[in-house]
Amino acid sequence: MTKENKCFLCGKAANSREHRYKKSDLIRSYGKERYKNERIIIAREGERDIYLNGPNADVVKYDKYLCNECNNSRSQKMDIAYDEFVNYVFTNENDVKKYGISLDKIWGDGKKIKIINLLQYYAKHICCRLLSADLTITDSAIQFLTDKTQSCPFIISFWDSIEYYKYSKLINEEINNLCLGRMLHMRNKVYGEYYAGDYGVRWFVMSWKYYLNHSINMDMENIKIIKIEKRSFTHFGALF
Ligand SMILES: [Zn+2]
After folding, report:
1. Measured in angstroms, how far is the CA atom of residue 81 from the centroid of ligand 1?
2. Which range marks the domain in which residue 84 is found?
3. What is the spatial distance between Cα 150 and Cα 182, in angstroms, rounded to a whole number?
């Protein structure tokens, strides 16, 4: 079986496509209906423009790397945590830019499991990204995504894009205010080989690193605020 027809999480037949751009981010930016009137360009191929005609268009999805169950009922908690997190960011933009993201304000006492679910959402997005580049997913990532461990091989950081775009020329693909940065393959002296990339929603850019031979045990009770730095990486909570 090739990676296109086998779910990378459970091994069953893959029949579900993950969004490259989160559907809720597309809807927040452009609405729910088919995009008849706005001509939103998703990519340019030579002289040809490819238009986005709605939030469910195939052009904003990866190939089939997951089964329906893993991409829907099993990962619903991850999608919900992501939406709660990003909705908080955009309904409290001024406070978030000034003071950071208060995880206690979003989730209160339930934050520990919600942080894991949020990281699992980002992990799913990152794994699909790697699969689309014909790369293999490590067991450490699969175990984190299937609740076998809370030890996580992903490091997530957040940028304010104003500075980010100034310092970085990594943009690979862009739909107006949503963007996927280029994916990089790098090596760290201490932790070894890793991949890195980013995903931006308006000014809010999530940067990720995925270590192939290193995982981090998180201390989520003690994560209170995620700062949004403008000039340097700010690592997400216990992920550093
Ligand atoms: Zn599956």
Report:
1. 20
2. 3-239
3. 28
